[in-house]
Amino acid sequence: MSSLQRFSLKLICLSSLLLILSSEALAADQALDLAKRFFDRENYEEAITEYKRFIFFHPEDQEGISDALHKIGLIFALSSNWSKAREVLRRSIELTEDSRIKDKRRIDLGVVLIASKDYSLGELELLKVSYFSQDESIRKKALYFQGIGSLYMFKWKEAKEIFMSYYPEDETEELKGQLEKAQHLAYKSPKKAKMLSLFLPGSGQIYAGNLKDGICALILNGLIGTFMVRAISEEDWWNATSLFFLFQRYYRGNLYHAQKQAELYNQELNRQQALKILKTIQEEVKPR
């Protein structure tokens, strides 16, 4: 074979290789584009199928796989499949080498953790970004969601500090007022509710705001106690003993429910205040 023929053969092989590589790149782009179109149209099952297809056929494309996993994680989050969303988002973060993308996805993971009520881990992910990210806009975004997480945990003082540093002072009068009010809510004391019901069954529930259950507890315990005393006075020990155990059961339940009712009252008070603050943020404060 002449040198000219060998050169021509090498050129053909090189051209074929380049054609194959460009075809694979085009196929990868098309696969991701199709998956993205399904995602944008909220056709999530088909989107996941296409993203998984891309991952299977392009195992060498680490950044592409990272992006596909990120989208799959968001889809799981939208369907409230929190455990899978967390797992997939973490893999997405591990695979990407772009620090900016990594930080943005940590924020997504933090939000998912907060939404799934794993507040401490969510707060930790957001803290990593707000302290260590090199991008100011990303740090600010992480700080904002830290504030949201503090609201969900009813950490009013912490939420106030975060939002006052996030928003300019002249935009936060209403928000500041709501956060200050949250620090002075009129809570019910679970201990006091229990003590009240210790001396007068049902009074603890009434104190905690549940009039209906309080009256029922008062009547029920009163009736059982009355019949028990009557049985004792008549020396009807069988019925007296039976009524004693019944009274003891309802009396203890009355103490438990009084304390629980006070705790539920406080939780609802916190929840309502958090909703007011979130509404203020959405309606009164300009997004940054």
Description of the structure:
The protein has 288 residues and is an all-alpha fold. The protein has two domains: 31-182, Alpha Horseshoe (Serine Threonine Protein Phosphatase 5, Tetratricopeptide repeat), CATH 1.25.40.10; 190-283. The protein is built from 13 helices and no strands. Mean pLDDT is 84; it is low at 7-26.
Task: Give the fraction of residues assigned to helices.
Answer: over 70%
Main sheet summary? none
**H/E series, N to C?**
HHHHHHHHHHHHH
CATH architecture of the largest domain: Alpha Horseshoe
Provide the number of structural domains.
Answer: 2
Separation of the first and last Cα atoms: 70 Å
Keywords:
288 residues; mainly alpha; Serine Threonine Protein Phosphatase 5, Tetratricopeptide repeat; 2 domains; 13 helices; 82% helix; 0% strand; elongated
